């Protein structure tokens, strides 16, 4: 085999790995949507769900930061270096030490949390005390779910070890088990709770803990097959361990802006009446589906390329790669944000409006969704800019920017919640996310000596114009279908199947209008995506189907 012949095989492996990870991530996000649907059906948006979402806010914060932040940015490169230089057993030793350290810290946090659960909960949800039994239920649920912290820490280390060995599918799919556990709890255990004398929502908290244990068990099985055996180990003299632990603080802080802002939303929403916390949570979950799939996929694909160019000192290539990635992200996320804003009510109605989730809940959740949607662009850009700065060796600056935007978000929310009510909290968080992305992009531009600003700005203007035209077209279609077609042809309210069909037609119309308008405006990213998709399809057709 010639040297040149190896390149397609390498490309094929990378493409296949990225596709597998994207598929697993998408499966997890879709299951998360099903989970929220099941919770909305059984509990709706009321005092019980407000209590649950406040109680699980800290466990969710820990899960998101460990699984998608510190572990991927700090632990995986360290473990890969040790695996390459010192072998597998040395890498296992680093994994054992990190598990031991994190378990010790998180168990201590759990014990303190159980002791101080009431004042901590009262701090986050001070208005709950005015509703009989609501604060007490929140405290109880908080104590039940606190053991999730060490579970998610262990699962994140397992994920890092498997990723360092390029075992990608199982760690990418393991978060889906958390959602499966909650779905099972909602469908099977909730109806059984009245026979036990327990609140039905307790079944969901049990599902949280079982889901965390399931994430560990699935990955531990694969690690065991690879030869890993856990033994408690901790060596403070280990330089690699000290470096990982030292970097985890700034890395967690850099990725914390979005999750801390959501905690701020939760705290302020507790004073906005029954259901406000639930409406905001349901709405944000809908916006996080495209963020989790598109934002993560683009940043994951760009980071290795950026790191390679940085290692070779090719700053011009770094600028080009970052600019291309940002424009690709904008081309997907800007029209997605406009589409979610325009179709907020029908989407929420189709997904959630059944069981205990009423039409009033649909309108309230849709208002929050429309306010959260613009932040999708900011969140996705942050997911791309932060790893870009890490690749350039800038570790502390993203943490400083994160703290600054948290403070800005707090100020915006305090003002907007008085003007707009609970949707103002979502809008303030979206504005803070866009500010975060803008500052990080400017820092990247300064660090790289430019960021192809003309192409980036020109691409954004074309994308924005095409998205506005698309939004107006979809809005007109939605109004016509709702006020004329459905009223004249279906006397009863449309069922789920017809509603899904109508939304599907509106989305296809939006894609067509956006593509047509963007092509008229000369948006070059359309041709780039088309060329890459066609090249991948042609390449896959040429791949051998049997053993070679």
| Helix segment tally | 22
Name the average pLDDT.
78
Coarse morphology: globular
Q: Rounded to an integer, what's the Rg over CA atoms?
A: 24 Å
**Distance from first to last alpha carbon:** 12 Å
The helix/strand order is HHHHHHHHHHHHHHHHHHHHHH
By secondary-structure content and strand pairing, the structural class works out as mainly alpha
Approximately how much beta-strand content do the residues carry?
Answer: under 5%
What low-confidence regions span 5 or more consecutive residues with pLDDT below 50? 1-15, 532-548
The main sheet comes to: none
Number of strands: 0
Share of helix among residues? Answer: over 70%
Q: Could you name the key traits of this structure?
A:
548 residues, mainly alpha, 22 helices, disordered N terminus, disordered C terminus
